[in-house]
Design brief:
This protein is mostly helical. The protein is 76% helix and 0% strand. Helix 1 packs across helix 2, helix 7 crosses helix 8 and helix 8 packs antiparallel against helix 9.
């Protein structure tokens, strides 16, 4: 990107990469400018220091890691809960950057109140979405709550394995949980 002007999204995407690769302590203006091959002036053109950048990055994490996934799951001609779960499972299991980024954000949330508030909001949003889908499938609020939690815990746990569970392995687990939660017979 040397010689070009980076847009705000470029800075935020670079931050996601750095966060996923090296963790929150590595999020510095120096590392961001080095990654993009740009100057600090370009950074300050978009953000009022690291505080403003962090707030924008957290909003970007929420938009890209939650809202975009839900929008993808809700897209498509088949609007049934089962079809939306399948699309969501597809998107999550195909995301190569997701596992490392999820772990990094959760670690950061243990040390930073602003990040913790984001993580709590993201977890509530994701769980509510899963619970609503399972409620539509099962018609049973208690079963919907438990199955949504199980599916979400599988996702979080898979991200924390070292190395993280592969997309293919994770997709197999999602398919199993979805079949079991929907009352289908497991293979």
């Amino acid at each position: 990107m040397a010689g070009a002007m980076a847009g705000k999204r470029d800075w935020l995407e670079a931050g996601l990469d750095i966060l996923g690769e090296h963790g929150a302590p590595a999020l510095t203006i120096e590392r961001l400018t080095e990654r993009l091959g740009l100057t600090k002036g370009s950074f300050y053109h978009h953000f009022k220091g690291m505080g403003g950048y962090k707030t924008a990055l957290l909003a970007h994490i929420e938009a890209e890691g939650t809202a975009a996934y839900i929008a993808y799951a809700d897209s498509g001609p088949d609007r049934s809960a089962r079809a939306r779960l399948d699309r969501l499972a597809e998107r999550v299991s195909d995301d190569d950057r997701g596992p490392a980024l999820e772990v990094a954000v959760r670690a950061w949330a243990q040390q930073d109140p602003e990040v913790r508030a984001l993580q709590e909001r993201v977890d509530r949003t994701r769980m509510a979405y899963l619970r609503d889908l399972w409620q539509e499938i099962t018609g049973d609020p208690a079963a919907a709550e438990q199955t949504a939690l199980l599916l979400y815990l599988v996702t979080i746990g898979a991200d924390h394995l070292v190395p993280a569970a592969s997309g293919r392995a994770l997709r197999g687990l999602y398919d199993l949980v979805i079949r079991l939660g929907a009352g289908d017979r497991a293979p």
